[in-house]
Amino acid sequence: MLEICLDDFLADGIVATLTRGWAGNPLDENVPLRMAGFIHFSALGGDAGLHPHFASCGGTFRPYEKGELTRAVLDCFTRHEGDARKFFRRTPQTNETGRAGVLLLGFSEIARRTGLPLNLAEMGASAGLNLLFDKFHYQIETDHGPLTWGPADSALTISAQWHGPSPPPLQSDIKITGRAGCDLFPVDIGDAEARRTLEAWVWGDMSERRARLLAALTIADQTPLQLVRADAAGWVAAQIMNRPRGQVTVLYHSLVWPYLDVSQRMAIESSFAQASEIVTPDTPLAWLKMDHDHMRPFSHLSYQLWTGENGPEGEQVFIGPCDPHGAELELGDAFAAS
Questions:
Q1: Which one, 33, 148, 250, 324, has least CB within 10 Å?
Q2: Cβ distance 170 to 108 under 8 Å?
Q3: Do 31 and 177 have their domain in common?
Q4: Ramachandran area for residue 22 (φ above 0: left; ψ -120 to 50: alpha; else beta)
Q5: Is 62 left (phi over 0), alpha (psi -120 to 50) or beta?
Q6: Residue 169 half-sphere exposure, CB side, CA atoms within 13 Å?
Q7: What is the count of structural domains for the chain?
Q8: Exposed, middle or buried: residue 129 (CB in 10 Å: 0-12, 13-18, 19+)?
Q9: Is 249 found in the same domain as 136?
Q10: E strands, the chain, where?
Q11: How many other C-beta atoms lie within 10 A of the C-beta of residue 113?
C-alpha cells in the first residue's frame, strides 16, 4: 500500500493532494502509517474494492493483483478525501496487549516488594487494555522451563519468552484496587467507529496481533475503565499527589516516552522528584517503564520504587531489554541476583 501511495505522491495524484503542506515532519509524525491506517479502516468498514485484499476482512492479499489494489486505494482516497483528512489527524494507537507479557514481571515485583495492592495509573493508555493485565492468561517460556499465570479461562492468552537467569517467582495473586489512564486521544471502545479505528492500526496480515486485540476488547467490554482525555504531565502530577493510603500507586507506560516533548518529560520527572521527598510507608510510589529513554535508546523494562524508607532517590531496578511488542524479555544478571 505504501508503494502505491509513494507512486501516486510522485505523480502528484490524490495522495500528494492529501499530504501536501503537512504542518510538521511527515516521517516523525508517521504520515505513511496514517495513510495505511485509513485504508485498513476503510476495508474493515466494508469498502468493496479494498475488502477482498485484506486477510482481516476475510480476503487474501495477492501480489500479482497490485493493479486492482492500486485502483481500490486511490479510489478510496478520492471518494473519501474529507474522511481521510480527518483520519490523518489521529495518532496511530495499537494498544498492544502483547506488552503485558513483559509488564507482568514489573507489576509482580512491585507487589512482592511492597506487599500491597496496586493502584494502577497508565500514561498514554489508548483504550486502557493493559490496565486489565491481571485478567489475561500468560504462557511464558523461560530458559528454565515454562511459567503460567492468570485465569486459565481468560479469553486472551499472552505468550512471551523470558531469557537469561531464572526470574523471581511471580506473585500468585496481585490485587488491583484502581485502574485509571490518560491519553490525548483516549479510545472509547463503546463507540463503533473508535473501536474500528483501533483495529485498523493492527495491519491486515497480522493475524495473531489481531486475535489478541479482539480478545482483549471482549474482556474490556466487561470491565469499565476510568480513562480521561488529558496531557500526561498534569495528569501524572494529580495521580501522584492524590495517592490512596494502604496501596502502592504504580504510574506506568509502554512505548510512550518518545512521543512526549521535552517539557512534558521534565514535568513528569519533577512530579516524581517532589513526591519522593514526602513518600511515607503507607503511600509508596512506583514508576514502571517499558520504554526507551535518553539513557537506553532500546526498549527495556525497569522500575523505580519509593517506599518512604529508602530515601528520596528510591531504588532504581533495571530488569532488562525487551521486544517492543512484548514477545521477548532478556533478564539482566544484576536483576536476577537481587
A1: 148
A2: yes
A3: no
A4: beta
A5: beta
A6: 4
A7: 2
A8: buried
A9: yes
A10: 118-123, 137-142, 145-149, 157-163, 176-183, 226-229, 248-254, 285-291, 300-306, 315-321, 328-330
A11: 17
Same domain as 79, residue 25: yes
The amino acid present at 143, given as its one-letter code, is: D
Ordered per-residue pLDDT tens for the chain, 338 residues: 999 999 999 999 999 999 988 988 888 888 999 999 999 999 999 999 999 999 999 999 888 889 999 999 999 999 999 999 999 988 888 899 999 999 999 999 999 999 999 999 999 999 999 999 999 999 999 999 999 999 999 999 999 999 999 999 999 999 999 999 999 999 999 999 999 999 999 999 999 999 999 999 999 999 988 899 999 999 999 999 999 999 999 999 999 998 888 999 999 999 999 999 999 999 999 999 999 876 666 799 999 999 999 999 999 999 999 999 999 999 988 787 66
Q: Is the pTM of this model over 0.90?
A: yes
Q: Could you tell me if 102 and 50 lie in one domain?
A: no
Domain-terminating residue out of 61, 88, 115:
88
Cell numbers 503537512 label which residue?
22
Q: Is residue 198 part of a domain?
A: no
The domain of 324 spans 97-188+207-337
In b/e form, how buried is each residue of 197-223, taking b as 16+ CB within 10 angstroms?
bbbbbbbbeeeebbebbebbbebbeee
The span from the CA of 247 to the CA of 174, in Å, is 12
The one-letter amino acid code at 277 reads E
Query: Are 32 and 120 in a shared domain?
Result: no
